[in-house]
Write a structure and sequence with these properties.
The chain is α+β, with helices and mostly antiparallel strands and 321 residues long. It has two domains: 4-184, Beta Polymerase, domain 2 (2-Layer Sandwich), CATH 3.30.460.10; 208-319, no CATH class. The protein is built from twelve helices and five strands. The chain starts with a helix and ends with a helix. Keywords: Coiled coil. One of its GO terms (biological process) is guanosine tetraphosphate metabolic process. InterPro entries: NT_sf (IPR043519), RelA_SpoT (IPR007685). Residues 174-208 form a coiled coil.
Length: 321
């Protein structure tokens, strides 16, 4: 017969599952609204065996001492985003403890880097049905970068969690790997800042910067931001468009000249094109493609989109010839 606290734990698992699901979904919404990109937001509830093992290993006198029954993990791309996410968590949740594991490492130590927040939902959240009854529960929220996560996963696989557990002949190598990953996190952060500054410089330059600008994803995005500022922007779509331009040997200057030709008629062209379609307007990359379809026969023919091309040919005759 299982002990009483194990039965109680099993009975409470659905409640913790609801907590994890709703907290992770809420965090996703909060980060999206703050324009913080992340690799993933996931949750887990401790399995019974893991719960019992922790009680025995830690020597807890009461099962309630296990606070990380529900865990949420946020994996982002940059160290700066870790700090921003922590600020959001501290604002939106009741935070009981916040620990930066990296601060516990001395300069000559290797080990786990992550930020852990012990939190519960605010009482007001219980006004919505999906959070009802959950404010009395706590969850541990881990925030780490992709590289921090890579270290944690490999460390777990090797079972070398700290120097005391590591054979001496491997310590130096692990220290070097840990230092390289930490340095890589910093360098990716620097690269992100430099990239953002480069994009700002392009955007702030005179409007004809494209005449001597190298064609790359930043210059192409800057061109579209400058000329189609109110249209939907998606960097992945910009990357696909960039590959098309390169493969068709189209320069940024070529695209700009095509836009100059189409721009006076663009509003009418777009209205005519979409009058029978499911959408009403092109996104940024869509405008660029339409402009090239209208002005560059080679690009248009290689695209091989018959219904679209038929419309484009009609619009070209109507407005540009």
């Amino acid at each position: 017969m299982e002990s009483g606290y194990i039965k109680d734990y099993k009975d409470g698992i659905p409640l913790y599952e609801r907590l994890g699901k709703n907290v992770s979904e809420s965090i996703q919404i909060l980060l999206d609204s703050s324009n913080i990109k992340m690799l993933s937001v996931i949750y887990r509830v401790k399995e019974v065996e893991s719960f019992v093992e922790k009680i025995e290993r830690k020597g807890y006198e009461h099962p309630n001492e296990v606070e990380d029954v529900c865990g949420v993990r946020i994996i982002c791309y940059y160290q700066k985003d870790v700090n921003r996410i922590i600020e959001i968590l501290e604002k939106e949740f009741d935070v009981h403890e916040s620990v930066n594991k990296q601060e516990n490492l001395k300069y000559d130590q290797f080990g786990y880097r992550s930020h852990h927040v012990m939190a519960s939902i605010k009482k007001d959240w219980e006004k919505t049905p999906n959070f009802k009854g959950l404010s009395v529960l706590r969850c541990e929220i881990q925030v780490r970068t992709v590289l921090m996560h890579a270290w944690a996963e490999i460390e777990h696989n090797l079972a070398y969690k700290n120097e005391a557990q590591t054979p001496e002949q491997f310590r130096r190598k692990l220290y070097r790997i840990s230092a390289k990953l930490e340095e890589a996190d910093e360098q990716f952060e620097d690269l992100k800042k430099e990239s953002e500054e480069y994009r700002r410089e392009l955007h702030n330059r005179k409007s004809d910067f494209y005449k001597d600008a190298e064609l790359n994803i930043d210059s192409l995005q800057a061109f579209m931001d400058s000329n189609f500022p109110k249209r939907k922007k998606d960097i992945e779509s910009t990357g696909v468009l960039l590959n098309e331009l390169i493969s068709h040997n189209i320069s940024l200057s070529d695209l700009a000249e095509a836009w100059i030709k189409v721009k006076p008629h663009f509003s009418k062209i777009e209205n005519d094109y979409w009058q029978t379609g499911p959408f009403k307007a092109w996104a940024q990359a869509g405008i660029a493609r339409a402009v090239l379809d209208l002005t560059n026969l080679q690009y248009r023919n290689r695209r091989k989109m018959s219904p679209h091309i038929t419309k484009i040919e009609q619009l070209e005759k109507r407005y540009l010839q």
